[in-house]
Amino acid sequence: MDSQSVRTTEACGVQGYDGGESVAGRKRHPLVGTEGPVLACDVSAANVSDQAGARRLLAGLRPL
Question: Pairing mode, if any, of strands 23-32 and 4-7?
């Protein structure tokens, strides 16, 4: 599990500011397997904390 802050334009949807990385945009929370395939991914505003993003990502896996 990881998180990456990515810059976006103002014309897009959800956007926030990540003060730790000084990035205005979105944050990706990917979950990958041991060999590298992406198992799940959640995208949120950049101002969402890593803990909150991980909770949203793992909550979405519950039905599986």
Answer: antiparallel
